[in-house]
Specification:
alpha+beta, five-stranded antiparallel sheet, three-stranded antiparallel sheet, 3 helices, 28% helix, 21% strand
């Protein structure tokens, strides 16, 4: 920025910004492999002061012009505005696999962005219309390695899963089917 003529009245001036940046770099160098409590506190204070300076510079750059090429010449990289949190998408695939021991199945499914947690339910029997009779809903935070136990030999098992976050929940996934045999 010291040689950039696109921003003649930078706020804060470079004479204030450069010492704040150098102060933080010096204190960070001292504490990078440890440092006393006091040294770390001083580094944190220098960091906060530099962040305030950087916010002032970026505000100046953004408000000085709407021309992207001029803004990019500042050396500050543009950042996408934060996206609005949406309800999570549906799970695309779900599958059973054999567990390590007889009497176990492992349930895996596609990890979904924006999912804070998953809910799944299993069944081992169907009703009169041929639909699975779903059991209790279980909540988990991972999409791989969910142990289903106990399961019986030579029996069909069904599972479905949906995603959740603070904005809502998805529809249930397609049903996975496994036939146990060991």
């Amino acid at each position: 920025m010291s040689t950039n003529t696109n921003f003649p009245d930078m706020n804060p001036p470079l004479s204030e910004y450069q010492p704040a940046a150098q102060d933080y770099l010096n204190k960070h160098g001292i504490t990078s492999k440890g440092g006393s409590i006091q040294q770390n506190r001083e580094k944190d204070e220098a960091r906060e002061a530099l962040i305030v300076m950087m916010r002032r510079v970026t505000s100046y750059v953004n408000n000085f012009t709407d021309v992207s090429s001029t803004q990019l010449s500042s050396g500050f990289h543009p950042v996408e505005p934060p996206s609005e949190l949406l309800a999570p998408g549906e799970v695309g695939w779900i599958k059973f696999r054999d567990g390590r021991q007889p009497g176990e199945l492992i349930l895996d499914w596609e990890a979904v962005k924006r999912a804070a947690e998953y809910e799944y339910t299993t069944a081992d029997q169907k009703d009169e219309q041929g639909e699975p009779v779903w059991g209790e809903i279980r909540r988990v935070s991972r999409s791989k390695g969910n142990l289903i136990t106990p399961v019986e030999n030579r029996r069909e098992y069904y599972a479905r899963v949906r995603t959740r976050n603070i904005k809502g929940e998805s529809a249930w996934s397609p049903t996975a089917v496994a036939f146990t045999r060991w």
